[in-house]
Write a structure and sequence with these properties.
Blueprint: H1 2-21, H2 48-55, H3 68-79, H4 83-94, H5 135-142, E1 150-151, H6 153-170, H7 178-195, E2 203-204, H8 205-214, H9 232-244, E3 258-260, E4 263-264
Antiparallel strand pairs: 1-2, 3-4
Helix pairs in contact: 3-4, 6-7, 6-9, 7-9
The structure holds protoporphyrin IX containing FE and 2-acetamido-2-deoxy-beta-D-glucopyranose (NAG) (3 copies).
The site of one 2-acetamido-2-deoxy-beta-D-glucopyranose has 6 residues, from loops.
Length: 265
């Protein structure tokens, strides 16, 4: 009996140690960041990044009453994304809400703020549901970079080019100014960085596909939180290559949008 109790205590100590060594990779029943699918009353965004953070409990699972500091901390903890990469978009996104300091994730569907046409995985607002994942829309990305098992900055640029052409073809109310283009390019750099290598922009297809389709971190499949901090500078370097492969030209002009002392859009 004493032996049994001792071994139970040892097992408990061992598992609590394992937990404290790296809680991000923990996956037991007590893991506070275990993936839990969004329920019927949980609110979610048109953003697979924020939705994944909520599904893993880095943001409130109900998707409500979220502050800018909460988004900044969750992005660092979940993705190793730095404040300079996140804060401008979090502050901008706050305008989607009527509350002074918080947003609900579904507020971000507001068309023309961040939400734009020619998305990777959502329909254009004028054509249907711009909030939820859409497999047909996602098929352009899912079929890109054939013959290899990763996406990169070349394929990401080509996907943006093809989805813009599709949006222009189908959507009589299409909007494609420098603002939308810069947001779309930043989002491409985000998925390559979070699911892959923030310095090379090479991301395993398997990880990216799970992130979009399930809004889940593919930890069980071998993904690890990037060890390289994702910053405005690392994203910017990838964006230069993505832009070069997207053959983009604007349909409309827009004013320069100032997102902070060091960042314009
Ligand atoms: C935390 C790191 C983040 C990652 C990895 C991320 C990733 C992405 C990606 C890949 C998309 C493209 C989805 C698509 O085109 O189908 C997207 C869209 C979006 N993101 Fe995020 N995002 C992050 C942070 C944020 C923040 C801080 C905000 C604002 C509070 C935001 C708001 C949006 C919105 C509104 C869209 C919809 C754009 C559209 O497709 O129309 N995201 N995000
Ligand atoms: C959270 O947001 C809801 C609106 O979605 C609001 O009614 C409620 O008062 C907020 N709760 C807190 C604690 O701020
Ligand atoms: C239509 O285009 C205008 C101008 O770009 C934009 O303000 C509006 O939100 C668009 N509506 C839809 C449903 O896409
Ligand atoms: C992306 O991958 C394709 C296919 O392997 C390759 O041809 C292309 O050069 C790569 N792009 C970059 C930027 O490495």
């Amino acid at each position: 009996m004493a032996r049994l109790i001792l071994s139970l205590i040892l097992a408990a100590v061992a598992s609590s140690n394992a937990y404290s060594i790296d809680s991000r990779q923990a996956s037991g029943p007590n893991d506070p960041h275990k993936w839990v699918k969004a329920g019927a009353t949980d609110l979610r965004a048109p953003c697979p990044g924020l939705n994944t953070l909520a599904n893993h409990g880095y943001l409130p699972h109900n998707g409500r009453n979220i502050t800018v500091p909460m988004i900044i901390q969750a992005s660092l903890d979940g993705f190793n994304a730095a404040v300079d990469a996140i804060q401008p978009f979090a502050k901008f996104g706050l305008l989607s809400s009527n509350a002074p300091e918080t947003l609900n994730l579904d507020d971000l569907v507001l068309h023309g703020l961040i939400e734009h046409d020619a998305s990777l995985s959502r329909l254009d607002a004028a054509l249907g549901d711009s909030l939820h994942f859409n497999e047909g829309q996602f098929s352009t990305l899912a079929n890109s970079n054939p013959g290899v098992d990763y996406y990169n900055c070349t394929s990401a640029g080509q996907v943006q080019r093809d989805l813009l052409a599709q949006s222009i073809r189908l959507n009589a109310n299409q909007t494609n100014s420098p603002k939308e283009f810069k947001i779309r390019t930043r989002e491409s750099a985000f998925y390559l960085s979070v699911l892959g290598d923030p310095l090379t922009g090479v991301a395993p297809k398997k990880f990216v596909d799970i992130f979009f389709r399930e809004e889940r971190l593919p930890i069980a499949e071998g993904w690890k939180r990037p060890t390289t901090l994702i910053t405005a500078a690392t994203l910017g370097a990838l964006q230069t290559v993505i832009v070069a492969n997207s053959e983009w030209s604007p349909t409309q002009a827009c004013e320069t949008e100032i997102l902070g002392p060091a960042l314009t859009l």
